[in-house]
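Need tokens for this chain, all 162 residues.
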Amino acid sequence: MLRYARRYDDAIAQCKATLELGPNQWPTLDLMARLYEETGAYREAHEILARIANCDAACLAMWDELYKMPGSAGAFDAWLKAQKKPPDAFFLATANACLGRIDQALAWLEKAREQRADLQMTFLAVDPSFDRLRSDPRFDAFLHRAGLPPQPKIMAARRASP
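Here are the structure tokens for all 162 residues:
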């Protein structure tokens, strides 16, 4: 919730406290990496991702590109090609949104809706991963079509920013 409120410092502090209870909690590590990326702390994001089990070099490079690490261009597409089974539609929507591929992100959101990824979309209207879609009227239309709440006024104010 702190991430959705853009209270990144508080969210990072909460993650650190949670990791004291168990240092290898994948969801907390993933969230913390996202928080570091969203605050521009790319090296910290990379270090946390490296701690996550099941993340080989190609996986790590893919996350580096999603988290905007310099020198990682093309890693996501290379990782995706190497997958035996495609990732779920919501992940692909998120990844494409992070990469600024608006058309693809919106198409994958439609697919995720068709696949009933309702739980994953619960906070879509405020999820920082989708900030690049906020200025596109198709994003608002998608939220309406999916039966999700519209972007809060604070999000609408972010439309002018990249």
